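Q: Convert this sequence to structure tokens.
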Amino acid sequence: MTGTPTLARTRDELAAALAAQDLAPVRGNPHRRAVVMTMGALHAGHLSLVEQARTLADQVVVTIFVNPLQFAPTEDLARYPRDLDRDLELLTGPGLLGADDVVFTPDVDVMYPGGDPIVRVTAGAIGDVLEGAERPGHLDGVLTVVLKLLHLTQPDVAIFGEKDAQQLAAVRRMVRDLEVGVQVVGGTLVRDDDGLALSSRNAYLSAEQRAQALALSAALRAGVAASDEGRHAVLNATRAALAPVDEIGYVALVDPDTFTDATTGPALLLLAARVGATRLIDNTALVLGADDGEARS
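A:
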């Protein structure tokens, strides 16, 4: 894939860029168009999603939009890192975007031309727990902008990172429950060499805080190591390994689809913690054994 992707800032520019590409006959990929939605401040985790999209579709659309609906008044909307020139340079690296592709970078007035939308998507029960409980309205804001961007970009497939596991589950349920004609694919969580999950918010960490933040991935490993012993052992081991962080938001074991408490079998171990002023999340999949005292097969 060579050439420079089209940069679209308005709805009209996006529509023109999508209409301009004659992608028939299909070049051997299973889909015509894939979308990867980001808030910019791109890192290797985002780029891995673009690489995955490249293998799934003939045309890739990357959206860059810092969505105010998913930030609470006390959160870091104004502080959130923004560097469009750097993002565009990264996106045109080897194996990423080319001349057939599009980068959509709307501002708030383009996404919400009438101001904050009166009608929004609700995440329902998935939006009331964990991230939803700690950040009320967050997942409603995510789903509202995701649905709008799906309508605007008209993809066959959308790729979302597994690091934001609750967001991914909520998007999948929205697509299924509201009959949205798109396939949702999860992209593997990417970690730095030291085990820290890649996040745009890692840029806020000092060297000392980054060392503290390694407790998150260590806690997940501790939880997985205890998984044969059951739910309580996993939660206890995970919490104990989080001792270096400044504040634990939550540690949870949930069903990967419903986000209700998991007791045995496939589960997601999720955690949120604060290091200094920076809030970080992480997760891993595991297979949960029965608690001591419960019947084991």
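The first helix runs from residue 11 to 20.
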